[in-house]
Amino acid sequence: MSGNLRLLADTLARAKQENRAALITYMTAGFPTVDDGIAATQAMLNSGADIVEIGLPHSDPVLDGPVIQTADEIALRGGVRIADVIRTVREAYQATGKPVLVMSYWNPIDRYGAERFGGELAKAGGAGCILPDLPVQESALWRETAARHSLATVFVAAPSTTDERLRELTAAGTGFVYASALMGVTGVRDAVSTAAGSLVRRIRAVTELPVCVGIGISDAAQAGRVARFADGVIVASALVKAVLDAPDAAAGTATVAELTTELSRATRRHAD
User: Catalytic site residues (predicted)?
Assistant: First the structure.
């Protein structure tokens, strides 16, 4: 293991040693503009986030709820390109030295060229990709590319994922396993599904990879509950919504920083 794949592993291991869950946050690249998205991303990393996911906007984000769909639409209307996603990764990494992942549907990367994308992501300091719609059985091209560039390949497991499929995706994945806290699209929820704890236990039965839980975690209280049984807590829609609801980009960045600080404190209550 080398490069920023090692950085990702070390970051998760350090959180475990500190008896807390790592905080993983998310922001859509190019939202509300490229520069504003970079500012919000850096604010999160400077306010307690251990790792950040940069969303690659897609015209048909079928797995995302209305908040991230809206952010994607705004970014695409603004003319965001993959070069802007790579720039966001580069500037976030260079400013903070923390792991930066890209969250993307497979089609844009496939069309861009897996080798081209992987090479540019690695050169920018990226730690890897989360590819929620890429079946393990069809992932060989990307996994080979990722391995050449020391990038993580993170697969998503859902409560409905069979034990056999869990063994397949954990054997193929690197970095960590993304455990979906509930069935359905991303979004802000009033409560975290009780299925999350069961899914984490099932994943840990078949792999030693860290297990990070996301989808539906909306506030510090929910993050604190998940931090008691997960290696990482992933918060996305709540942070994007903070930017959407803000009167201007500067206010959005300030709110994102404040929310990230609250979430970070909550994940530190990992011990019973």
Answer: 53 (proton acceptor), 64 (proton acceptor)
Domain count within the chain: 1
Catalytic residue status for 53:
yes
Which residue in 64, 72, 91, 120 is the catalytic one?
64
pLDDT band at 127 (very low <50, low <70, confident <90, very high): very high
End-to-end C-alpha distance for the chain, whole angstroms = 33
pLDDT-based confidence at 269, cuts 50/70/90?
low
Which residue type does 99 have? P
Report residue 133 as tokens: 């719609």
- Please report where in the chains the tokens 């797995």 appear, as a residue: 63
Place of tokens 């970095």: 175
Say whether 262 is catalytic.
Answer: no
User: In CATH, what number is assigned to the domain containing residue 197?
Assistant: 3.20.20.70
**Residue 270 in domain:** no
Pairing of strands 156-157, 177-180: parallel
Task: Return the pLDDT at 3.
Answer: 77
pTM of the model: 0.93
The residue length of the chain stands at: 272
Edge-to-edge order in the sheet of strand 51-55: 152-154, 128-130, 100-103, 51-55, 22-28, 232-235, 211-214, 177-180, 156-157
Of the candidates 36, 53, 91, 231, the residue annotated as catalytic is: 53
Domain of residue 222 covers 3-265
- Residue range 42-69, pLDDT digits in tens: 999 999 999 999 999 988 766 778 899 9
Q: Do 252 and 79 touch, CB atoms closer than 8 A?
A: no
